[in-house]
Design a protein that fits this description.
signal; elongated; 5 strands; single chain; alpha+beta; Nuclear Transport Factor 2, Chain: A; PepSY domain-containing protein; 30% strand
């Protein structure tokens, strides 16, 4: 009987040890803090951003309500574009080459 109890206890502690193993998540996102946000005129957006907006079905027929130039601590520049009205607006971010920046959480 003692052997069965010992085997059971070892099994429980082994299982608990496996459950307590650290989990390494390789899917992480580096978030850079925006240091500066300046509103710019939509016509002042880089041509690459305007071209991307004109090519995408989701944005090509939308009116640009506002545009912002965002600069982070490292000096990297992104552009935030708000389409439509404030109530039914759509907001997207682009880099200077016109690539849409998709934020993952």
């Amino acid at each position: 009987m003692k052997k069965i109890a010992l085997i059971f206890a070892l099994g429980v502690f082994s299982f608990a040890g496996i459950q307590a193993a650290p989990v390494v998540n390789s899917n992480f996102t580096v978030v850079q803090e925006i240091q500066d946000e300046n509103e710019i005129a939509p016509e002042d957006l880089p041509q690459a951003v305007k071209d991307t907006i004109a090519e995408k079905d989701e944005t090509k027929d939308q009116t640009i309500a506002k545009a912002f130039q965002l600069t982070d601590e490292a000096g990297n520049v992104e552009y935030k574009v708000v389409f439509g009205t404030e109530e039914e607006g759509l907001s997207k971010k682009y880099d200077a080459e016109g690539n849409e920046i998709v934020e993952t959480v």
